[in-house]
Amino acid sequence: SSNSTAGPLPEEDCMKLNPSFLGIALSSLLAIDLWASKRLGVCAGENSAWGSARPLMKVIEVSGHGIPWLLGTFCGLCQSDSSAAREVLLNLLFALLLDLVLVAVVKGLVKRRRPTHNKMDMFVTISVDKYSFPSGHATRAALVCRFVLRHLVLAVPLRVLVVLWALIVSISRVMLGRHNMTDVLFGLVLGYALYSVVEYCWLSPLSAPALFALW
User: Is the pLDDT of residue 13 over 50?
Assistant: First the structure.
């Protein structure tokens, strides 16, 4: 009799009892992502499976960090005596700054915590770096890779090395335990797309004369 007099279940209870196919699929993918990322975090600590390679992975980490790229680009811009080189470097600086801002905004909105097996010994972090989605290193690697391949004349072996560098930087994020796989994959996609935005907003002496007057 109690069942017959009971009212309908609240909507949230119905959702829990009858989860949607999309919810089940997303939960399963998240579980696979966390499991695979933990298994691939072979350099997350000195006692990990590949713990001896951790120092090398941290060197690779620095090579994809924003500060060395920003400082190097700015120094090159200040020392360049070619108008064409200054235009390319100024746009690279713009791309790097845009990348930092966009990644920080997305991290602040999503607020996904870093993997539990990560050691917080990263090179120069800011407040949003406690979050992991997306991987700023992967975003930057994809952005710089496309930029360099498009605007620098390089021999084929060097072009291959640039692509390999971007892939190694991205893979190292999971190996170090800094990120989950989806953080890196989304970062690569975001960086690849961000380059198209930079190309669309390309800064030139005609479109931004005030900026070029400073140099």
Answer: no
